[in-house]
Specification:
8-stranded mixed sheet, alpha+beta, 12 strands, Jelly Rolls
């Protein structure tokens, strides 16, 4: 399990990934430090950017935190009551990545085995943690020269991630449902409408950056770029990209647990016009101070 459930746990102790049922922290307290995706609440990175990648069917496929040193995604999957599923997945994932032409290794990390794949000057690190009836996986991808920093940042993100397993029965390895925040769901719905109305425009859509541009001033436009506020600001300034945006990279879904989120709850909500304070994710702040 990810932590001792007998302890009184609060987000900000870097003792995660946390099971939401074991936390003293209320979800509403995480509104501006975490990106709430339903089954996972992921701490945003100051100066980063939220991006959504769409599938060929124009459905949300992956949600990324794009940072100045690479991009990070976090997903949760159903698992048996007994731990150990990640150990099985590591073997399958490493073999699948090798078959795809990546130079692959398995390293010991904070929670156990991590799969590292290198290809074309980029490093992709897969970190998994077994929890109570769930498995959470973090994937960090970026230039190989930033691999060590991105590994530390990926672990910091995972150490403050919260998993909301729910009581619904799911077969082991099935992805836990992803629900996009209302503001982000609105942006996805608008992108879907444009993609269906103008497929040629969707195909010509620019691929997302693997790194967020570094800027000294806050981003005040609707264009892709770093956002200096917390989760609410980053969601309001999120970017939606078309399918195959990362077609030249190893497929993070190459081995089970393998499926990406297939649906999102598209509800109406007005974006908050007031500037939001920076994220309070303490693990993120400690990482940035150490760099």
């Amino acid at each position: 399990m990810a932590q001792d459930e007998s302890d009184e746990l609060r987000v900000g102790q870097a003792r995660g990934p946390y099971d939401i049922d074991a936390l003293v922290t209320e979800p509403r307290e995480l509104e501006n430090s975490h990106l709430d995706l339903g089954s996972v609440l992921v701490p945003v990175v100051e100066g980063g950017q939220v991006t959504v990648e769409m599938s060929e069917a124009h459905q949300p496929q992956n949600v990324y935190l794009v940072t100045p040193i690479g991009r990070i995604s976090v997903s949760a999957f159903a698992a048996p009551k007994s731990p150990g599923m990640w150990r099985e997945v590591v073997r399958e994932l490493a073999g699948s990545l090798r078959d795809d032409g990546a130079v692959t290794s398995v390293e010991d990390g904070h929670w156990g085995r991590e799969v590292v794949a290198e290809i074309d000057g980029a490093t992709h690190r897969f970190i998994g943690v077994d929890g109570p009836r769930w498995l959470v996986r973090c994937v960090g991808s970026g230039p190989s020269e930033s691999a060590d920093d991105l590994a530390r940042l990926s672990r910091a993100v995972l150490a403050e991630t919260v998993v909301r397993r729910g009581s619904e029965p799911f077969p082991p390895r099935d992805p836990l449902p992803i629900v996009l925040p209302p503001v982000l769901a609105e942006q996805v719905a608008a992108a879907q409408q444009q993609m269906f109305a103008d497929p040629a425009s969707a195909e010509a859509q620019a691929a997302p950056p693997t790194q967020a541009p570094v800027a000294d001033a806050p981003d005040t436009t609707d264009e892709a770029g770093p956002v200096t506020g917390g989760a609410l600001d980053q969601v309001a300034h999120a970017t939606v990209y078309g399918d195959n945006a990362y077609a030249d990279e190893p497929d993070p879904e190459a081995a089970a647990p393998s499926q990406a989120p297939e649906s999102a709850e598209a509800t109406s909500a007005d974006a908050d016009e007031d500037p939001q304070p920076p994220s309070s994710g303490s693990a993120m702040q400690r990482f940035l101070r150490r760099r």
